[in-house]
Amino acid sequence: MAPVLGLVGSSAGGVEQILPRLIEPLLERGWRVAVTLTPTAATWLDASGEISRIEQRTGYPVRWQPRLPGETSPHPPLDCHAVVPATANTVAKLALGIADNQALTQVCEAIGLGAAPVVVFPRVNAAHVRHPSWGGHVAALQLAGVHLVTGDDVWSLHEPRSAPGRELPWVTIVETIVAAVRG
Ligand SMILES: Cc1cc2nc3c(=O)[nH]c(=O)nc-3n(C[C@H](O)[C@H](O)[C@H](O)COP(=O)(O)O)c2cc1C
């Protein structure tokens, strides 16, 4: 059976490219992909018409709101979770277990369950990393077994607003997801 990725996108640079650069390569490898967005990311991708393109290509509704108590999830069971791109805000909330939107709810639960791998690419800058709480957030996620796609060779840190249009390390992200599921 094809593995299913639960892809969470938050409102950082590169979220506008998840369809061609992350979803398409995984679909070509035989994966299925079910997308959930943070509320701000949903606003951005809705404004550009990208949400309906993602829904057409993946065959699943894009989620950004919680279901009603009597409803069932419109997404299938997930074999892997990936938060790409992850804002500094979303990384901090994941580390603290704050689940105040649908995207965080599903990934916080996945981290706690430990049944499926969780891959996170923090699309952050040097100022985010200099925040006094950043090191603790990264340590908490690593301790929980989260696969963090970080490092100077993968994503060197730039100062705020100094890297517009910078490409995300898409190939490394795809390979990390595939390797995480292989185990
Ligand atoms: C154009 C634009 C680009 C942004 N890019 C980033 C980014 O690359 N990384 C980041 O951590 N925050 C970025 N932000 C800030 C986040 O969007 C903001 O902190 C937001 O509240 C995060 O919400 P979310 O984590 O729920 O998506 C950007 C904001 C704007 C307006």
Write up this protein.
With 183 residues, the chain is of the alpha/beta class. It has a single domain (4-65, 76-182), classed as Rossmann fold. Helices cover 43% and strands 14% of the residues. The protein is built from eight helices and five strands. The protein has a five-stranded parallel β-sheet, sandwiched between helices. Strand 1 (4-9), helix 1 and strand 2 (32-37) form a beta-alpha-beta unit. Helix 1 (18-28) packs parallel to helix 3 (50-58), helix 1 runs parallel beside helix 8 (170-182) and helix 4 (88-96) crosses helix 7 (134-143). The model has no long low-confidence stretch (mean pLDDT 97). The structure holds flavin mononucleotide. Flavin mononucleotide binds next to helix 2 and helix 4. This is Flavoprotein. It comes from Actinophytocola xinjiangensis. One of its GO terms (molecular function) is catalytic activity. InterPro entries: Flavin_trans-like, Flavoprotein. Residues 10-128 form the Flavoprotein domain.
Ordered list of secondary-structure elements with their pairings:
Elements (H helix, E strand, L loop, with lengths): L3 E6 L8 H11 L3 E6 L1 H9 L2 H9 L21 E7 L1 H9 L5 H12 L4 E5 L3 H5 L3 H10 L3 E2 L21 H13 L1
Parallel strand pairs: 1-2, 1-3, 3-4, 4-5
Flavin mononucleotide (FMN) binds next to helix 2 and helix 4.
Organism: Actinophytocola xinjiangensis
Protein name: Flavoprotein
GO molecular function: catalytic activity
